[in-house]
Amino acid sequence: MQYLLAFTLPAFALAACDGLLEVQNEQQILEQDLDQEAALPPVVNGVAGDWALMYTGAINIIGLVSFELIHTGSFPSWRSVETGLMDRTSNGNGVYNNLSRAIWVADDAARRIDEAFGGGGGMVEPAQVRTWGGLAKIMMGDNFCEGTLDGGPAMPPAEFYRLADQDFTEAMSLASSAGAPDWAMRAQAGRARARLMLGDYAGAMSDAKAIQAGYRFEAVYSQNSGRENNSVASLTRTLTRREAGVHPTFYDDPRFIADPRTSFIDRGPNETGPDPTRKYVEQEKYKLRDSPIPISTWQEARLMEAEAELNIGSAERAVELINELRAFVSLDPYEGEVSHAAVMAQIMYERSAELWLQGHRLNDLRRTNDPSLAGRGVCFEIGIDEWESNPNLGGS
Fold it and tell me: Which one of 32, 242, 331, 383 has the lowest number of neighbouring Cβ atoms within 10 Å?
């Protein structure tokens, strides 16, 4: 079962194809023009497109600061962020701007639909935009020390997780009323993640258990334009640009070498990128600029369930869930200690492989106090653009 998102299309452009060569006066699209049922698909596509653009760009930067990728190219700012520079002038600024936009357009679309259609009961579109909004808020909570909403005051990550939980809960209800079980499941997978990050293990376990085997929700990219490209593939592949390669944390570890979930090509010590001093190892997870990127999967749900089991249930059951995933990719079962520390370490390994290059790793390192982050930044600061323009922060 595969769930896909549509990409942004120019709103109303296709309606003008007749008489393509005719000269006509431009007409302004008014806000009320968007408050029509015919306008909902392009509005939703715009929300999805802004989210997907944010996601692929964030994966590159998060990969660099969390030891998934190593800079092998010619971007000085990438070399800096790789060292753990995460202040407001770093590459986190661009991620923050795209993330703030993704949140704003989703929340604004939800507001517009509520006002124009009386809450949107029986329609799938409000469930969709609330799901995108929740997913964006989770990304903010995972990767930034604090964030803002629509020029407001700074809020801690926990507040973004709580708001995401609300978005997903509302999306589940709306999707169910609209007869859209696929979107209800996408929202429930998101809510499981928000609740896990809030330490609500019972809620996370309940939601994760509801995610069916085979579930997969992906962001779809295309070759059409830079905005629509999978920029992870664009910037980490020999075919396009070797700006970053697989980090030695992965290519020097026998576990990752043997794990099909972290597929890469190691051509030896003399293979470099544009920087001739650094070894380049090519990731194989996203081969082309139109390769899809997973957003949530049944495998992630089983790992969330395992973590919840470990904390409030049975460590033995957590190991069973781990081994279910390992068997799926033909790996030997985990047969180590069944202590809390040992099983948690294995869960973190499974997450590092299963969710590789999906924007999870920095948060996993931070929330487990991984020693690899000692002496480095552990989360990005609010971007400089927001800091200087927001009167609640450094602006005036």
Answer: 32
Give the integer Cα–Cα distance in Å for 351 and 304.
9
Q: What is the biggest distance separating any 2 CA atoms in the chain, rounded to whole angstroms?
A: 74
Return the closest-CA partner of residue 186 out of 128, 139, 109: 128
Q: Which two tokens stand for residue 220?
A: 């779809």
Q: Where are the alpha helices (DSSP H) in 120-269?
A: 125-143, 157-177, 181-197, 201-209, 231-236, 248-251, 254-258
Give DSSP secondary structure letters for 116-137.
Answer: HHTT-TT-SHHHHHHHHHHHHH
pLDDT band at 367 (very low <50, low <70, confident <90, very high): very high
DSSP 8-state secondary structure symbol assigned to residue 8: P
Nearest to 381 by CA among 159, 154, 62, 92: 92
DSSP letters along 27-88, please?
Answer: ----GGGGSSGGGHHHHHHHHHHHHHHHHHHHHHHHHHHTTSEEE-SS-HHHHHHHTT--ST
Contact 124, 175 (CB under 8 A): yes
Contact 52, 291 (CB under 8 A): no
User: What does the radius of gyration of the chain's CA atoms come to, in whole angstroms?
Assistant: 21
- 272 secondary structure, DSSP code: B
Q: Which two tokens stand for residue 14?
A: 């296709």
The DSSP output letter for 212 is P
Q: Running DSSP on this structure, what letter comes out for residue 314?
A: -
pLDDT in tens, 27-85: 444 455 556 788 899 999 999 999 999 999 999 999 999 999 999 999 999 999 999 99
Per-residue pLDDT tens over the stretch 332-341: 999 999 999 9
Rounded CA-CA distance 297/295 in Å is 7
Distances (CA, A) of 167 to 133, 345, 346: 7, 31, 31
Residue type, 141: G
Tokens found for residue 118: 């009386």
Distance between CA atoms of 46 and 314, rounded to whole angstroms? 43
